[in-house]
Amino acid sequence: MASTARIAGFDDIDVVTDILVGAFFADPLWGPWSFPDHQQRREQHRAMWRLFVEGALRYPWVRMTSGNEATAVWIPPNGTELTDEQSAHLEPLLVELLGDGAQRPLEAFEKLDEVHPHDRPPHFHLSLLGTDPRWSGRGIGLGLLQENLREIDTLRMPAYLEASNLANVALYERYGFRTLGSIQMAGGGPEVVTMWREPFG
Fold first, then answer.
1. Are 161 and 195 in contact (CB under 8 A)?
2. What's the pLDDT tens digit per position in 29-67?
3. Each residue of 79-106: pLDDT tens digit?
4. By the 8 A CB rule, do 163 and 192 touch?
5. C-alpha closest to that of 24 among 164, 155, 198
6. Is 32 helix (H, G, I), strand (E, B) or coil?
7. What is the pTM of this model?
8. Coil, strand or helix: which one is 193?
9. Concatenated DSSP letters of 7-27
10. Residue 158 in contact with residue 124, Cβ under 8 Å?
């Protein structure tokens, strides 16, 4: 089958960001729980996701489908989602966007970092996987994931992700991911499942 994916470059930062804004608008973790203002959420997301996309674009592992329907943001082994400068900017950015409400996404990032399996072998981290809502439900994002995993398998590397939507856990299991554990956000917040995949082949 011909490749449907391409490597995103810095010229694609706005397109990748917009895909993620749409994909995570109603996400259990990153939607109303973290960003409760329905009217402002898209612009708030755009500012936050752009920071993470910019950080990931340091590596050749941000992937897009050929028609820009979906994107996968991977961090390669021993890489980081953000530079030190970007990490220092994250909290003031969220405070600027959310005021006291910044506590929730900041808690989420802190907990995700705490449970990241730093003690395991070097691995690829699927930081974000999203499909433009206009194309959702057609398996495009999962097709991109499958293609990326085939490439990662040729490198004989494991992969890790956090499922912020529990409905996706079974889907990830189809592609070889297995549950490591889970995180419960405070105050009746959402549950996030952490998952690990050994290379196939």
1. yes
2. 999 999 999 999 999 999 999 999 999 999 999 999 999
3. 999 999 999 999 999 999 999 999 999 9
4. yes
5. 164
6. coil
7. 0.96
8. strand
9. E--GGGHHHHHHHHHHHTTT-
10. yes
